[in-house]
Amino acid sequence: MKSFTILSIFMSIAFVVAFLFVGFMQSTIIFENITNESIHKVEQELKKMTAPIETSLKIVSKLSKIDHLKNMNSQNINQVLIPIFNDFPQIVSFKIAGEDGSVYMLYKSKDGWMIGHVKSNQNGGKALWFSMNKDTGETKELKSEMPFRLGKSSLFKKVIKSESNQIVWSDPRKLPFSNTMGMTVSLPIKNQEGQIFIFAFDVELSSFSDILTNISSLKQGTHFLISDNKQYVILENNNFYNSEEQKTLAQSGYANWNVENYVDYGIQYWEENKDDIKRAPVGHRKKHELFYYRYEGADLIGNLRYLECGSNLSFWVGIILDEDKNIIIKRDMGYLIAIPIILCLALLIAFRMAHSMTKKYTIPIGKLVERSIKIAQMDLLESDPIKTPIIELQQLADSQETMRIELKHATEQLEEWGNTCSLQVIERTKEVEAKSTELAKLNSELAELNKNLEKKVTIEVEASSRKDKIMFQSARQAQMGEMLSMIAHQWRQPLSSISTITGSMLVYLELGTFDQEQFKELLNDINNHAQYLSGTINDFRNFFKPNKDKQPAVLADVMDQSINIIGKSLAYKSIQVNTDYHQKMEILTFPNELMQVFLNILKNAQDVLLERKIKIPTINIQISEENETQVVEISDNAGGIPEELLPKVFEPYFSTKDEKTGTGLGLYMSQLIIEKHCYGNLSVTNLEKGACFKITMPSKQ
Amino acid sequence: MPGAKELIEYSKKCSLLYVEDDERLRTDTLRLLDMFFNNIEVATNGKEGLDVFQPRQFDIVISDLFMPIIDGAELSRRIKHIDPNQMIIILSAHDEYEFTEKLKKTGVSDFIFKPLDLQKFIDVLFPICKNIADNKL
To answer: How many CB atoms are located within 10 Å of the residue A141 CB?
Structure first.
């Protein structure tokens, strides 16, 4: 309920904000409508006025003889001018100005008329003024003499230059002898002598200001008129200023500069757009513009409208409003606020309705929930039936009741089944017990069998160890075969040397070029070769004679002996052997068995290097000591052992070679020798270039 | 049966390139060859042999078979490529028929098997040297 109220409040605020925004948009539309309407009124008024004034001026210029008017006698005034003055209350004066600078003027005054006559030339002169009582026609000379210089008047110059018989409207200005805004409408006429006389009326534009200022919402605004040559009149708070006065007032500190700036904006706008406006075909002319701008923190809205009032009278009218647009908003605020209030009310009503509906639903729903909980807790006793006018809820209540009854039946049945089930369980348990005793019997039988199995296993293991021995023997035999091949390589070069030496000796003998010293030397050489051959035989013999006890040996020496055996074989295959010994300390070990391991690893390296046709086949041997552990590393550059075969290489009967060359026992036996006899470790890893066999053994055993 | 004297008569007129990598055997064999040839160049492996052979010609090339980098078989193949008529004799411990036949296809003229038998040595060299000497006359 609370959230509902808060929601409705929030919604109201949202609506108010939204409507204020819309209201602002609305207010501009209202402004536009009001100003358009009032300007339109002004235009209508002016249109009504301009044509008749023009006609009147033309009539006056034709009917009246200038001389008559010059006299400004009561007859002339009464007969010709007064009817016009009467018909057009806007007309406040009549003037005739001659090319020679003479001016005759008739002004409306409080009592009647004021007549002025300037005799002076173009350089200006003094005006003689008379007052004329409108009833008696009596004239009285006024003592004050006002300076009057028509020749310097811009209007005069403009009119003189313009075509004859062509109406000319002045810029809007403050009219002389009255505090009103107006314009002068002039008509230049050429007489028979070719002299130009200007006939003119001063026309008040009071209707313009009246219309605008009479609209309450625009009363506070600034109104202005801009002529085509940028002269303007500003109306503000029932005061008006023209361009000239504005400047003077500004200097004296009275002027409202804001106003002038607004007007400047209007002028600027007119300047920027007048070409477009004038170029546009008649009827499609953009005759008014709504503009917004921000001036000194105030949001201003303006409407600028081009008026064409006939008889060559056209000008821009502008209305600018700043704070006063609030007036419009206030006026429209009524419905702007009313709508959200109505919406709020509607929401409240909706809420009330919802509340009553909820009540209607919640009570039976509450009961339904309560009973559902009871059913869930298996409380299936009968309770008061739910009665509700809402059909759906009633159906729900009825089906809940049916469910309750069904559930009750089901539970009762379940209980019955449960009882029968427990009897069955007891029977089953007895069966299981019987089975378990059987199982116990079987277990004891199994135990006996296990004992027998152990015996069998022992027998099998013994058999297996026999097999191992056989296996070892066969591996040894295979190695002996390899050894023979190595011996063959080893002996070939010295034997070749011996044969060449004997060959040489034979040639010496045949040629008779021998001497004793030379022969001694050659025989010595032969002996050296024979000693070498004997040495290699010893190496092999030692290799085949198993060590029964550990002997002191340097691993590097054991390795050298191994290389002595296999070296020639490797050399024949262009395999380079690099040795790098960092350790030459004696340790107690089985040198012959170690040699077997080294030879096995070297032979494997040789085989794989040849098989893979490695370009510069190389075997690197390094012997070092780390933490009282002897480390022998034998690596090749044959590319390594495939990863999936790595764990298998030490398994018995595993070989990558064909049956002729490999028994698959070499590495298996090597590992046995290192781990069982030497208490060390033999492992293999793949390095960057190839496989590396690493033998580690404790330095002290 | 030609003896050493007979061979020397012709062999002294022949130039020889001897290629062997084993130092001791090279010394021993060179002693024997010196008695038969006046003009002997020695190379210690196949590559060196090829480098020596390329700028100048030899009447006979005697090379060991198993050598590092470039072996006797490869050396004879390359030499035959440069001069198809070059006489090449291979010193080999392998006396299997298949092996020698295969090498003969690469252009090897004849074989001297280790350990060296003097008479066999003379028997192989005599016709070759005689032929060369006769052609030079």
So the answer is: 9
Kindly determine whether residue A504 and residue B22, on different chains, have CB atoms separated by under 8 Å: no
d(CA A576, CA A567): 9
Give the closest residue to B39 by CA, choosing from B55, B24, B57, B23. B57
Least confident of A212-221, A246-255, A407-416, A421-430: A246-255
Identify the pLDDT of residue A142.
Answer: 73
ipTM of this predicted complex? 0.89
CATH class, range B4-136: alpha beta
The residue extents of the domains of chain B are 4-136
The residues, ordered by sequence, that sit 6+ positions from A402 with a Cβ below 8 Å of its Cβ are none
Predicted local distance difference test score (pLDDT) of residue A285: 43
> Quick one: tokens of A37?
């309407």
> Domain A546-698 classified CATH 3.30.565.10?
yes
Q: Which residue of A has its CA nearest to B31?
A: A504
Q: What is the fold, at CATH topology level, of the domain defined by A11-328? A: Beta-Lactamase (3.30.450)
For residues A251 and A249, give the distance between their C-alpha atoms in angstroms, rounded to a whole number.
Answer: 5
Nearest alpha carbon to residue A129 among A176, A186, A173, A60: A176
Edge-to-edge strands, sheet with A314-321? A239-242, A232-236, A222-227, A314-321, A298-308, A288-295
Do residue A510 and residue B4 have CB atoms under 8 angstroms apart?
yes
Tokens of A666: 């070499």
Contact between B2 and B127 under an 8 Å Cβ cutoff? The reply is no
Q: pLDDT, tens digit, for every residue of A161-189?
A: 666 677 888 777 777 766 677 788 888 88
Helix, strand and coil in chain B, % to nearest 5? 50, 20, 30
Q: Which residues of B touch A (CB under 8 A)?
A: 3-5, 8, 22, 24-25, 28-29, 31-32, 35-36, 66-69, 71, 93, 114-118, 121
| Residue that the structure tokens 């390329």 belong to | B54
Q: Minimal CA–CA distance to A187: which of A64, A43, A44?
A: A64
Overall residue count recorded for chain B in this entry: 137
Each domain of chain A, given as residue ranges in start order, spans: 11-328, 546-698
Q: Are residues A93 and A105 in contact, defined by beta-carbon separation less than 8 angstroms? A: yes
CA atoms within 13 Å, Cβ hemisphere of A625: 14
